Every structure is written in C-alpha cells, then in structure tokens.
C-alpha cells in the first residue's frame, strides 16, 4: 500500500520540478531571440537592414562556440571589436570610452545609447558602431561584401556571413534552429550506426568522415536543416552529392545519391524536410559509377571556425534528430 502511494508521489514531485524547468528554458531562449531581434531592428538603417547586422553577429557567435582562442562574449550580442579598431591603433588607453578621444585617435567606437560613452562591452554601442561601419560602404550586396572584406580579409568568412544573411532575410527570422532526420522516419526501412573514423581504402587510405544510413534505392533524402545549397554534382568519392551550408557555420554533406530533386539547384534555400534527392549507391569512380556498395546515404557534417573547416561526428546529432522527428510526427 505504501509503495503504491510512494511511486506516484515521487513521479509527481519530479514532474513538478523538471517540467517547469524545461518550459522556463524554452521561454528563456525565445526571450533571448526576441531581445536580440529588437536590438537588430533598433539599429538597422536604410543602408544596413537588420538581417546584415544579425548575420555578422551570428557568425561571431558561431566561432566563439568552437574556438578556444577567442573569448566567448556572455551577452545578447556576440560581436567583439579589437581595442585597435575601437579606440584607435595609437591610442594609449585601450579601455578608452570617450567618443572625443576615440575619434581623435582614429578609432571606430561610437556611443549607441546616448550615455556619453563609447563602450565596446555594451551591446547598443557595439551594434551602432557595426551599423555605422557597414553603412560607410553603401547599401548594395557588393558594398556589404566589400565592408566584410575590409573587416575580415577572408573569402570563406564572407561566404558564411552572406549565407546567414540570405537565410535570415528569406525567413524573416533568426529562429532557424530546427533539425530533422535526413530520411523519412515512417514508411521506409533504414538502419545506421556510428562509423565515424572507420578506415576507407578506395582512392587511398583515409577515415570515414560521416555516418552511413542504409536504406532502399529511391528513399527520399531530406535536408536536416535550414540552409543554402552550395554544391551539387559529381564527386569521385561521394558520387552524386549535395552540400548545404547553414546559419551555424555547418556544412551538411549528402552523398551517394541515386538522383537529385529536379527542382533543386545551387543557390536555392532549403529548410528541414526539403527533398534533396534519393538514396543510391553512386560513387567510387568516374561520373555515373554506381553499384559498388549497398545503397545508403552518407551524411557528413563540417564546422567552419573562421580559419579551417573540419569534420565532426554526426552520429549523436542523428540519434537526437531521429527521436525529435518521430516525436513530432506522432
């Protein structure tokens, strides 16, 4: 009798404490997105729309999450300026907040909230300074790229920021974190396991940089994320493959396809569930080679950290996305 009462009571207590925590965490994340968006909208200009500010900010946030040599800015806005940029290279005071002396030494830091200080640790001052800097180059897409080049001096960084800008502008939102499993979780048979790092011999000794999801020929292959199609075509290793870059500095690689979605092309915007093509067994040879291995989707993920792009194991993400996708389809 005591056990019958005790177990339900324990479950009730657990639910009481855990469920509100989950809800509060979700609400907090949504509040951060809203606060961030409000700031972007407050400092956009006719030359610098909000999604350009948001793209630069998101890129900075992305690299801070994976780079140990860059301090992570614990605030709503992630953009960080160097002392030289903010106060001027010849300014003896790296912590200078006086707009007058900053301007005297050729610094770019500005007062964005009207408190008389140009503080590079203040979100409003940071966004106002970035908006002003970008606006100096003009309103066009090419002007924006020129501004990014002058600031970052790296084409790969520019490409990543432009991708983020495209997505934010198209969806009119910065809440683009949803992911799904790359194959339909119902109506088709499939299997997979963690094969990251396994040896591969064709084309020279190398390791397996992804997860193989085995399924029948023609099983639809779906985009796991929001993104922009960066690559489509033949690769001697991956056969017919599609490469998609998302707003988190991640490149998603879908290989060994039987064929592509005929309506898809490089530069297209995709979202979770967009059909990219179908499972096949293409690859390991000249264009059109097929049948050298059982049909499967090779799914890979690569992270760009502002310097290099490196592969990481997608298996834990696939397990999570599979559960989420199944739960969402109940």
Low-pLDDT parts are 1-19
Beta strands, count: 12
Q: What's the N-to-C terminus distance?
A: 35 Å
General shape? elongated
What is the residue-mean pLDDT, rounded to a whole number? Answer: 91
Helix and strand sequence: HHHHHHHEEEEEEEEEEEEH
Quickly give the structural class.
Answer: alpha+beta
Rg over C-alpha atoms, rounded to the nearest angstrom: 24 Å
Amount of helix: 25-40%
What percent of residues are in strands? Answer: 15-25%
Give the oligomer, counting copies of the same chain as homo and different chains as hetero.
single chain
**What is the overall number of helices?**
8
- Provide the domain count: 2
Q: How would a textbook summarize the main sheet? A: 10 strands, antiparallel
Organism: Ureibacillus thermosphaericus
Protein name: Murein DD-endopeptidase MepM/ murein hydrolase activator NlpD
Keywords: Hydrolase, Signal
InterPro entries: Cell_wall_metabolism_enzyme (IPR050570), Dup_hybrid_motif (IPR011055), Lysozyme-like_dom_sf (IPR023346), M23ase_b-sheet_dom (IPR016047)
In words, what does this structure look like?
With 330 residues, this protein is α+β, with helices and mostly antiparallel strands. It folds into 2 domains: 31-171, no CATH class; 190-328, Glucose Permease (Domain IIA). Helix content is 38%, strand content 19%. The strands form 2 sheets. Strands 1, 4, 5, 6, 7, 8, 9, 10, 11 and 12 form a 10-stranded antiparallel β-sheet that branches. Strands 2-3 form a two-stranded antiparallel sheet. It is elongated. The two termini are 35 Å apart.
